Write the structure tokens for this entry.
Amino acid sequence: MIRSMKRLWKYLALKNGNKVIFMSKIVSLCLFFTSFLPLWISVLFIDIKSCIENQEHLWTEKISISIIVVTSAICLIVLTIYFKRNRENEGTELVIINAYENKTISAEYLLSYILPLFAFDFTLWSQVVLFLIFFITLGFLFIKHNHFSVNILLE
């Protein structure tokens, strides 16, 4: 039965006694997107500042602001529903399946969150497209390998 569940779900497994809690691809995608919350706040600041200072050609900024706000809201709703549904595990003992020291977390943080602020101009649509290529590639790798190391919402 677990093998068939693996085919249907991309999962992160928390083992609670004999029960394994699976996480869908949608929840994984929401965790990935919300892990970039500091970057999204920075991009929102840059775009809102650009809208205030400039009065012409603001389509990139308006689209960017809309997408970030709507996607963040959807992800927060999905994660809230997911974690509320799994509240039945509250008060029970969870067993960590695998743990190890991650010595590359600082490099990952710089690459994932800080580099885009310096490498891309979020007020130009061509730079936004380049960022999306970077972001989608990074997202694919993180979700495929169940690698969710830093998420400010979970702290």
